[in-house]
Amino acid sequence: MIRKQQMEIDNYEKVAVTPRFCYFKPKVMTNSTMAQEIAFSLSQKKKFISSKFFYDDVGSETFEKICDLPEYYLTRTEFEILDEIKSDLSEYLADNFALVELGSGSSVKTRKLLEILTCKQKDVEYYPVDISDILKDSSINLHDEYENLKITGIIDNYETGLEFIRTLDHTKKLVAFLGSSMGNFSPKEGMEFLEKIHESMSVGDMLLLGLDLVKDVKILESAYNDSSGITADFNCNLLLRLNKEFGANFDLTKFKHVAVFNKKHRRIEMYLKSLTKQHVFMPVIDLFLKFKKDELIHTEYSHKYTTSQIKKMTKRTGFRLVHMWNDKKNYFTMALFAVEK
Ligand code: AVI
């Protein structure tokens, strides 16, 4: 039986689930911030919805299904690389390291890193950071699997996670940012985010970054246009979410999922396309929207990288690139960085 003991720390509620697992969650729900952001982004000439709003409970579950799709090679390939490099990686992790994971999701790939750390260390501290409540279930699973694991979760955005990282000055940290989640930032935002990660780390800490590489357009586009329509559901769930949370009347039969590779910017661009001229009203935020036929709502960028681009990018952020490992097909890369004096 799980014992729950609650404690208040500033704006966060701390929930102690067991002596080895607790998590922090903001006390104030951020629905009004979301309302403001949506009102702004859908009132622009080029309408957009931030991809961070994909991850309500339904969206998070749908994303887990995407990760298992035959066309979505990213998760599978990253997992294979992690499995391959376990012994290489463990040489770089000779001291005691705490593991911080930005965007931990279902924590499936985390197991590969924990296998290394729990083997070498008597106790391992794990700090998963995820915007979704999925963190609770995935942490409990890990907690039950690894007896020497102590978990402190942060259910919030990456920025808050980084604030937590700053306070952990007792052990060296391995920060993992996997799944090519950095690709969802623009290159400029990605650089700024890497700089922020760098600022919140100390000398001796390491960063493990998983990034998707540029490849054949057909492979890229089918990863985001899967034959079973799961990615389309993931995209359309944004509109369902607005119907549920803001009383909007989006008719899902009048919007279509679109995902195309933009060669110039090396990114998959995802949109929701209005199939007719139509009006939508969102009473909760008093927003009236007009759509032309074929008008697009931009919902996500997923940038793909080249090796030289990664090298250049990281030099500018202050990290030293220690090693890069690719899979045999060069679909995906895992890059290990060090923080130096
Ligand atoms: C989370 N992120 C790295 C995924 C991606 O591939 O950009 C999100 C996703 N969007 C559609 N399919 C998966």
Which helices and strands, and how do they pair?
Blueprint: E1 5-9, E2 12-18, E3 21-26, H1 31-41, H2 57-67, H3 73-84, H4 86-92, E4 97-102, H5 110-120, E5 124-130, H6 134-145, E6 149-155, H7 158-167, E7 172-177, H8 187-199, E8 206-212, H9 217-223, H10 230-246, E9 255-262, E10 267-274, E11 278-282, E12 287-291, E13 296-303, H11 307-317, E14 320-326, E15 332-338
Parallel strand pairs: 3-6, 4-5, 4-7, 5-6, 7-8
Antiparallel strand pairs: 1-2, 2-3, 8-15, 9-10, 10-13, 11-12, 14-15
Helix pairs in contact: 2-10, 4-5, 8-11
Bound molecules: N,N-dimethyl-L-histidine.
Explained architecture:
The protein has 341 residues and is α/β, with parallel strands linked by helices. The protein has a domain at 4-26 and 92-215 and 306-339: 3-Layer(aba) Sandwich (Rossmann fold). 36% of the residues lie in helices and 29% in strands. It contains eleven helices and 15 strands. A ten-stranded mixed sheet has the order 1-2-3-6-5-4-7-8-15-14, sandwiched between helices. Strand 7 (172-177), helix 8 and strand 8 (206-212) form a beta-alpha-beta unit. Helix 2 packs antiparallel against helix 10, helix 4 crosses helix 5 and helix 8 (187-199) crosses helix 11 (307-317). The longest helix has 17 residues, at 230-246. The radius of gyration is 21 Å and the shape is globular. N,N-dimethyl-L-histidine (AVI) binds at residues 66, 74, 179-181, 183-184, 224, 231, 234, 300, 302. It comes from Candidatus Nitrosotalea okcheonensis. One of its GO terms (molecular function) is methyltransferase activity. Keywords: Methyltransferase, Transferase. This is Histidine-specific methyltransferase SAM-dependent domain-containing protein. Residues 35-337 form the Histidine-specific methyltransferase SAM-dependent domain.
